[in-house]
From TrEMBL:
Residues 64-344 form the G-protein coupled receptors family 1 profile domain. Pfam families: 7tm_1. Keywords: Cell membrane, Disulfide bond, G-protein coupled receptor, Glycoprotein, Membrane, Receptor, Transducer, Transmembrane, Transmembrane helix. This is Neuropeptide FF receptor 2. GO terms for molecular function: neuropeptide receptor activity; opioid receptor binding; peptide binding. GO terms for cellular component: plasma membrane. One of its GO terms (biological process) is cellular response to hormone stimulus. PROSITE patterns: G_PROTEIN_RECEP_F1_2 (PS50262). InterPro entries: GPCR_Rhodpsn, GPCR_Rhodpsn_7TM, NPFF_rcpt, NPFF_rcpt_2. Receptor for NPAF (A-18-F-amide) and NPFF (F-8-F-amide) neuropeptides, also known as morphine-modulating peptides. Can also be activated by a variety of naturally occurring or synthetic FMRF-amide like ligands. This receptor mediates its action by association with G proteins that activate a phosphatidylinositol-calcium second messenger system. It is a multi-pass membrane protein.
């Protein structure tokens, strides 16, 4: 989440006694107190693996999270408190995909920082803000899910003492507070992030001995102790403490899940209780997996950041960490931004139907220029076209249909019509209820 580089990894990429332009990749040689390094950090095959891996999660991140945003915003039935928090997660993941994945990929396969100061600050800030917003949102979801939480009860008693559940307006206010906190905690990083020119390093370009100055994007703290303190504050406030709270809450949810009392009266009530319990289990399982994946995905990168600031590593260890381990840790962290929509689709039928409706809608829109879509229902010898079903109460069909046709027409509208937009598709054939328990 923070732009971390160490000059030792660049000045000691690979020691050599002479410059071979055919082996400029991962090459370093020191002449007249100037260290010359190759432009590329990896062989073409290794760089290709990095590019394909990052491109894959970038595409999944952009498409998946954009569809999640579309589903929640388009369908009124999906606008619940939990889904609003999920929408906030999707927005933060989109920001990571747009501002962080491309720049991090280039930074991990070439030497130095190829962009300007603005991109340096934007990339580091947006990544840090997005991650902070994500973890705070996960905490808000856990608090909302665990209705007996002391923290939630205090919030409700103080702010909304007569309401039994968070409302959309309250959730919106919480999301605004989340982003304000995320921006505030990352402001020091944005101030300290600078593009610095290294006077003792030159980057080799091509095969004609041309060189260019070496730039890097890093937090330029007055001293190393201040950097260590800030790293520790970030680790405690946007990783260790919030995610520990999440784990504790979901553990308590798991303990109390089957003790939830639902008013019942007879066998139908018992069936309803069983259904609610199953839905509750599935939603909580989905949210728990999202939280656990977040913890595991960001753990390697946080570990490397703490090692970079606190551990006494050798030059060889710095080289291996910066060139090989950091790219993988970044990829794993970004993978978390891509996998959430897949989890939603796998565990939640409403999102799954939403995904299907979006793709069906796009396919039907492309095919709609060549043919019309009809829904057929046999009524004696008559076939009703789809565009007439919804208007079957008009005089054009009144003389030919009996009195029961309007009721059947309504049934056709709910059961048989092909989904032509997401909102209709979300409510058809049995109804898509919002993600709420």
């Amino acid at each position: 989440m923070r732009t971390i580089h160490n000059h030792k990894s660049y000045t000691h990429l690979m020691q050599s006694s002479k410059i071979s332009q055919a082996e400029s990749v991962r090459l370093s040689v020191c002449l007249n107190n100037i260290t010359y390094v190759g432009f590329y950090l990896h062989q073409p095959s290794t760089a290709a693996i990095f590019i394909v891996s990052y491109l894959l999660i970038f595409l999944v991140c952009m498409v998946g999270n954009a569809v999640v945003c579309f589903i929640v915003l388009r369908s009124k039935n999906m606008r619940t408190v939990t889904n609003l928090f999920i929408l906030n997660l999707a927005v933060s993941d989109l920001l990571v995909g747009i501002f962080c994945m491309p720049t991090t990929l280039l930074d991990n396969i070439i030497t130095g920082w190829p962009f300007g100061s603005l991109v340096c600050k934007m990339s580091g800030m947006v990544q840090g803000i997005s991650v902070s917003a994500s973890v705070f949102t996960l905490v808000a979801i856990a608090v909302d899910r665990y209705s007996d939480s002391v923290l939630l009860l205090l919030f409700r008693c103080i702010v909304y003492p007569f309401k039994q559940k968070l409302t959309i307006s309250t959730a919106t206010l919480i999301i605004v507070i989340i982003w304000v906190l995320a921006i505030s905690i990352m402001c020091p990083s944005g101030v300290m992030l600078q593009v610095t020119k290294e006077q003792t390093i030159r980057v080799l370009l091509g095969y004609d001995n041309k060189t260019t100055p070496f730039y890097w994007c890093r937090e330029n703290w007055p001293n190393q102790d201040m950097r260590k303190i800030y790293t520790t504050v970030l680790f405690a406030n946007i990783y260790l403490a919030p995610l520990s709270l999440i784990v504790i809450m979901y553990a308590r949810i798991g303990i109390t899940l089957f003790k939830t009392a639902v008013p019942t009266g007879g066998k139908p009530g018992h069936d309803n209780r069983h259904t609610v319990s199953k839905k509750k289990q599935r939603v909580i399982k989905m949210l728990l997996i999202v939280a656990l994946l977040f913890i595991l995905s960001w753990l390697p990168l946080w570990t490397l950041m703490m090692l970079s600031d606190y551990a006494s590593l050798t030059e060889q260890q710095y080289r291996i960490i910066n060139i090989y381990i950091y790219p993988f840790a970044h990829w794993l962290a970004f993978f978390n931004s891509s996998v959430n929509p897949i989890i939603y689709g796998f565990f939640n039928e409403n999102f799954r139907r939403g995904f299907q409706a979006v793709f069906k809608f796009s396919l039907c829109a492309a095919d709609g220029q060549r043919r019309k879509t009809y829904s057929h229902r046999l009524q004696g010898n008559s076939v009703l076209p789809a565009n007439n079903v919804q208007t079957s109460l008009e005089p054009i069909s009144l003389n030919s249909l009996d009195k029961n046709i309007p009721r059947r027409t309504n049934h056709i509208t709910e059961q048989d019509l092909v989904m032509e937009d997401l909102e209709k598709g979300s409510c058809s054939s049995g109804g898509v209820t919002a993600v709420s328990i």
